[in-house]
Amino acid sequence: MLKCAGHEVSPETCLYAKNQVVANEMVGVLKGVGKAPQYREEWRSVANRTDDAAPAAVEPWRRVQRADGGMARSAWKLELSEGVWISQVLNTLIVKRTLRGGQLLKHPDGDVVILGDVNRESAVVAGGDVVVWGALRGEVHAGCNGDDSSEIMALEMEPTAIRIASKYAAGPEDGADAPAYPEVARVDADGAITLDPATRLGAASPSVRAATLARRRASGSAVNWSPAAKASLFTGAYITAVGFLLLVAPVTIFSLLFDPRTIAPGWIQVFGTLCVAFGTYYLGAAWGDANGGGARGFYAATVVGRSAIFLTFCMLVAARAVQQSLLVLGIVNLLGALAMFTALRNASTSNLYL
Q1: CB of 150 within 8 A of CB of 142?
Q2: Residue 245 burial (CB < 10 Å; 0-12/13-18/19+)?
Q3: Tell me: the pLDDT tens digits for 177-225?
Q4: All domains of the chain in start order, with CATH
Q5: Are the CB atoms for 187 and 163 separated by under 8 Å?
Q6: DSSP 351
């Protein structure tokens, strides 16, 4: 027998891994496997419920009007060991097995991906998104730390109940027909849990994303700096700083590492301009990630960076620091910035955000 969550269980019923990091993130099997009343009591405590019964007024979710939804656009190929592993970079817990009744899986510090089913009377609690590559019939609490931009996706969405942050929704009635395609549960602009066809995780409309971010700002949780976002922010900051120094004092800064006689000061300033632009891209990507905007932050940063390249190149040519042919590259960057700006503006009226 093994010890799991303080209880003796058989090896095949305990979620475990040799990696101690994973083991510390997980709770395996609840006491009283298969006993619904005892399980429900545990679930209430996990979901930060303070009452002894279901909420007085539970709003069932509603399925929005669907287009011709299909399967997800791409499949995932994952190399797993011991059935469970964790991505240290993305802080995502990945489980390659089915959760049976009475099992509880907790990962409050990131997303959870389950390559299997979540059966009835089992539960998943995650600090971020929950993706079930199978049938979801148990209970799920995404965004358990209060992030109501978290989402729940399943190939078969038939849960007993779901929570996203503090929002609660009862599952469909027994016997209800489930759609023949994946769905995503998310909090809409009105603060209610809705279901959409799962074209891709995170593909909420701009109005939904804007309302979600507004609620997060109001609650003081608008910015969530992941390790990757912090690294991108640091990289962008020092590249941008170096670029500005090369623009202001090209010979002095360049001579710290290289012989300034090998290159004209004007071309050192061109290099500094490119450093500022690249640093802006990193800063934009970090800010977009931390604010829940995804790649849109990077796209917007390219508009700023490439516009700055055009303006700086024009100034250098006007000062006769470089040849006039540099204007060709400046104009190319300006056209690229205008094209991206137009694409971002048009995306604000579409159903998918960038």
Answers
A1: yes
A2: middle
A3: 667 788 889 888 778 888 888 765 554 545 455 555 555 555 555 556 7
A4: 2-218 (2.160.20.70), 227-347 (no CATH)
A5: no
A6: S
